[in-house]
Amino acid sequence: MLRTEEMILNVGPQHPSTHGVFRLVIKIDGEIIKEAKPVIGYLHRGTEKLAENLQYTQIIPYTDRMDYLSAMTTNYVLCHAVETMMDLKIPDRAEYLRVIAMELGRIASHLVWWGTYLLDIGAVSPFLYAFREREMIINMLNELSGARLTFNYMRVGGVKWDAPEGWIEKVKAFIPYMREQLEGYHNLATGNEIFMSRIKGVGKYTKEEAISYSLSGPNLRCTGVKWDLRKDEPYSIYDRFKFDVPVRESGDAWARYHVRLEEIEESLKILEQAVEQFPAEGEIMAKVPKIIKAPKGEAFVRIESPRGEVGCYIASDGKKEPYRLKFRRPSFYNLQILPKLLEGQNIANLIAILGAIDIVLGEVDG
Amino acid sequence: MIQDLLNSSPGWANFGIFFLLGTVLLLVVLGFVTYGILAERKVMGYMQLRHGPNQVGGKWGLLQTVADVLKLLLKEDVIPKMADRPLFILAPVIAFAPAFMVLATIPFTDKFQFADIGVGLLYYIAVSGITTIGVVTGGWASNNKYALLGGMRAAAQMISYEIPLVRSVLGIILLTGSLNLNDIVHAQRHGWFILWQPIAFIVFFIASIAELNRTPFDLPEAESEIVAGYHVEYSGFRWAFFMLAEYVYLFAMAALITTLFLGGWMSPLAALNFIPGAVWFALKFSVVIFVYIWIRVALPRMRADHLMEFGWKVLLPVALANIFLTALIKSIFHIF
């Protein structure tokens, strides 16, 4: 007598396509997923708890290690929160440097996503092309901050280092180059019949579902919700730039793919204007006391990271360490919809859906 | 020469000659696999902004594969505790042996062919099907879930694509009236079958990629989905056997395509007849290999259900239509 049974399969924590130490326990019938249960926490370092014993400047390196693919944005959100509490006025030059660094980081992050997503889908070459461009960005940020990945660049009140000589010109030269390469990406991958058939209609959800699951970033905009904090709640100097918020209606992986690639274009537009308006002279640090003490009270700020809304909540009792620090980490929230999306899909789609969410495990686990 | 030997009375001398010839073929194939892998890595490297191997054996990395194979042979022989031991050991052999057996019928030149049998094409297709059993066995015997999934994928894929593969060459068989590979080459005197049978060529080429488990049909070993598929538990020389089987099939399939569609060892123009057949064969063969590598670099992987759909709903009807069309044209215009 033939007997069939469901099989429990551990995808991860060591799996090439979980992008880190993410584990997914799936119950499969053949290749069809009946139930999926994400298990996270393998990379939990307790950043928020550690921060309670650290001075504000000392917390910045920890934020580097949260969203390690675009550390500049998490750097910024912490500084931004403290600055909001202290009501600091940031010099223009510092703001421009921050925006340029963050937008470069956004491009680098989306490039990593694009490369690794295609790698998940089975195409090896795009990964190397994407990393060629990312390497240029990393080198530029390295010149700026002295680190390739964990920049530790921003400070409460400004930035640590001024742009070295000729750096702005490098960024300027990178913009047309990147535009050209982006066209190549579309030629190489976007129009590919196999690729389209792999991700069109995969991992679909509606606008209402996206909002009720608190999704943000491209994961939200792929359903047609035009919500980008850079536009809707402008922080820093984003109100000075003209750019669009790419939106797609279909809510599937294909939409997310397009939103991300178009965001690279929009970031290039912002960069173009930022290097144009970049003040030739000026301070890079506001006048801040030697030891930074946030006044008693609390503050919550949120900004748009490549993965969505990253928020920072600080409760201070007036000391040099925060009383409580909390990060709203978009990868963590975006991941919550995964079990729902995976039900009834096959293993190939699992990879396509998980990849399209674009998680960074450092951020998921905090 | 071989025909004479086959007809003469058996003896140690004959055995010795056959053994020697077999060894020569083995060395040719191993030589190809060694440098085929190197070529693949080099070509992929240049297409992917890398250099490929450039350390072991001079700046071309000429000894890289040799070193890799040596390393694999010296590795500890690991058999998982819960694996089905006899099957686990047997599987790589079942996978590899047919890969080598099929080479006997390929006519590399008009003289250099090991077995000029009447049903050469049928033999090739029949024997190559055995490898699937090795792959499925390996996947099952490993007692690993990923390996099992890979093995099942392999079985489904091979069966689905074997059929359009065979159907597509029926057109050629109709035109030549023979299953003998030598006859098929000779029938291409007035034009390669890639020109007479373009549809068959396309179907055959696509199905052959699926048969070879290469991108975009590399589902049985999709490393980003099921890690390494059926050979996830294999290491050392057993794993090397699976890899060897894969590359020997690449060799065999490219040789078969050269024979069936690209006129085998014959020169494309009568004026170029002074160039030996082996050179022509090698040239055409290399072009086919290059296209295989090119496709691997350029394309993403298909999904299992799309793969099945494509095999049964597209390739098979097209192949059948091609047979019909060929028969029609043949009986109306009386060519061949």
Write a structural description.
The complex is a heterodimer of chains A (366) and B (336). In chain A, 49% of the residues lie in helices and 13% in strands. Chain A is of the alpha+beta class. In chain A, helix 4 (92-121) runs antiparallel to helix 5. Chain A is globular. The model of chain A has no long low-confidence stretch (mean pLDDT 88). Chain B has 336 residues and is mainly alpha-helical. Chain B contains 13 helices and no strands. Chain B is globular. Classes of the chains: A alpha+beta (366), B mainly alpha (336). Chains A and B meet through helix 4, helix 5, helix 7 and helix 14 of A and helix 7, helix 12 and helix 13 of B.
Q: How much helix, percentage-wise, in residues of chain A?
A: 40-55%
What general outline of chain A do the C-alpha atoms trace?
globular
The termini of chain A sit apart by: 50 Å
**H-E string of chain A:** EEEHHHHHEEHHHHHHEEEHHHH
Quick description:
Chain A has 15 helices and 8 strands. By secondary structure, chain A is α+β, with helices and mostly antiparallel strands.
Topology record:
The complex is a heterodimer of chains A (366) and B (336).
Chain A (H helix, E strand, L loop, with lengths): L6 E5 L11 E7 L2 E8 L7 H5 L4 H9 L6 H16 L5 H30 L3 H21 L8 E2 L2 E2 L7 H24 L2 H7 L7 H6 L5 H4 L7 H4 L20 H25 L19 E9 L2 E9 L7 E5 L1 H6 L2 H5 L4 H11 L3 H5 L1
Antiparallel strand pairs in A: 1-2, 2-3, 4-5, 6-7, 7-8
Helix pairs in contact in A: 2-3, 3-4, 4-5, 4-11, 4-14, 5-6, 6-11
Chain B lengths: L1 H6 L4 H36 L16 H11 L10 H17 L18 H9 L1 H12 L3 H32 L4 H6 L6 H4 L1 H14 L24 H26 L15 H22 L5 H30 L3
